[in-house]
Design a protein that fits this description.
With 141 residues, the chain is an alpha+beta fold. It has three helices and eight strands; from the N terminus they run E-E-E-E-H-E-E-E-E-H-H.
């Protein structure tokens, strides 16, 4: 899409994290439409007038039905193929404080909460590096 505006290229993602008895769990969703084995963390276009990290939190709310505290610190960036081109996705962490029973995209997506190591094994390759970077960051603390 050669003539698309720059703002259309802006993407952000949230890795929703649940800290449970010193174990880190990740909230994953399926891509739309529901596909059994295509697990991702929530991502989408950065909303006009929003920061990338606030927009990432909004995606987590809409796609995964989670609310939490998003870190304004960029964790990672990765390339995502969309609409015939490559887009850069900025990745942030979100510490989950509430898991909703009903959410916007629950009819379109499955959700699961799994340990970080399991999430690393099943996410799409374009997002795997972000989870590996998160794991390394946690180990270095």
């Amino acid at each position: 899409m050669a003539n698309k505006p720059d703002w259309l290229n802006e993407r952000s993602a949230a890795i929703p994290l649940i800290i449970d008895n010193d174990q880190i769990k990740v909230v994953l969703v399926t891509t739309k439409p529901k596909q059994k084995d295509n697990w991702i963390f929530p991502k989408g276009q950065v909303e006009l007038g929003m920061s990338a990290y606030d927009s990432a939190a909004k995606e987590a709310f809409e796609e995964a039905g989670v609310i939490g505290r998003v870190s304004p610190t960029l964790l990672d960036e990765y390339q995502h193929d969309k609409w015939g081109g490559k887009m850069c996705v900025k990745v942030y962490t979100l510490e989950v404080t509430e898991i909703l029973d009903v959410w916007h995209e629950m009819q379109d997506r499955n959700r699961q909460i799994i340990p970080l190591d399991e999430a690393i094994k099943i996410v799409q390759s374009s997002q795997k590096q972000s989870l590996l970077k998160l794991k390394q960051q946690i180990q270095n603390q």
